[in-house]
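can u pls check wat happens w/ iron/sulfur cluster
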Amino acid sequence: MIKNNRVQGAVLLGDTLDGPWYLELLQGQTDIAPMRDHLLFGRHHLGDAGHGPNEVSNLPDDHQVCGCNGVCKGTIQKTILEKELTTLEEVRTHTKASASCGSCTGLVEKILAATLGGDYVANKVKPLCPCTTLTSDQVREAIREEPLTDVAAAMSKLCWQTVDGCPACRQAINYYLQVFWPRESRERGSDRFVNERFHANIQKDGTYSVVPRLWGGTTTPDQLRAIAQVADQFKIPEIKFTGGQRITLLGVKREDLTAVWHALGVHGMVSGHAYGKALRTVKTCVGSRWCRFGVQDSEGMGVELEKMLWNCWTPHKYKMAVSGCPRNCAEATIKDFGVVAVESGWELHVGGNGGIKVRATDFLCRVESQEEVLEYAAAFLQLYRREARYLERTAPWVERMGIQWIQQQLAQAEQRTLLSQAFQKGQEDLQDPWQLRAQGMCGKSDFVPLAILDHRQEKVA
Ligand code: SF4
């Protein structure tokens, strides 16, 4: 957008490398009259001497590269040299440049290349963490090969370079063990992220949030009365609805956690896993039960899906939604797995994401029956659990693997059934982690942050 030969704003699609340049023109209110005819085609079209190999060196040190986090070129270069950074990820971690919307990523990579010169290797494959030279993929494949008893055994097999690893590698190895060898392996509390150890999200004031699972986003008068009673009894200061159609109790004291879980459990409520790398929510619209546009029972489908898929660990948080018609009121097309009802059945979509970088789902396939939806949902989740890297959301995973590859894996009925059955087998005998914690601990005021072992490890113990 231009007014009086001054840039007023710009939206870039696709290649956004010229973003900082347009921003510079906007902020400086540069007179663009001499280049107006060519402005739309980008900086290189102007034969601009500042563009090309010398682009980075021509930028002043105080040139703001990352608008989201206010990081300048000089800061990035200084940090690269001081901390001996070699990858984009490291630059993001240490400077926050390119860590938010990502539109400056191309320029940050150029700064990295210009600063390191011949030492820079584009797309360098990063080790899992500083404790090893192996990548996350190599660690996962090695763990998949043979049963291992615990994180220490995996580190020993993989010749770890530190005695007990670091939080990053302990959590990743523990996740791979839980996926491939859930019955053979044991875990310690230190192998889990702190919120997963406590089965609750710690808040800025040191209290916790507690989010019971409300299947498919539905609830009952009995559950609502129970939540209200718990809030009164434990003087919980705030009750809030979440974006995923759940109710969160905010400000729960640590010493009250087990008693709160127990009180909710008496009324049939179980952990919502709002704290974990696990299935969070299955959002639904009212569908054909109530809506005059609904063509399928989206509420019923959401409840079925959630009851089948809850309580398993995934590489990252996992969100789902079911809409009762193509109007898509449940926003299924920005979820990890979205289901949209159509006249002839259901459309399945995968790899969506809200948040800082919104990604719409890729279309997976269309199916006719509820049974097919359930089978595809379990098979896709199992494929993601087994093939993605720890801490990789479905959105980047689907982009990395390609939707065609995922469609191929799930198109063959035999393979799809095997994946689905493998998932179901891993779910056998699962129990609510809150009630496992509450049993024997309810009523005690000294909540001990025991290592959270899931029931499978407890059985072994
Ligand atoms: S998605 Fe369709 S069925 Fe669901 S609430 Fe919206 S209009 Fe109704």
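The pocket of iron/sulfur cluster is lined by residues 285-287, 291, 293-294, 298, 323-325, 327-329 (CB under 6 Å).
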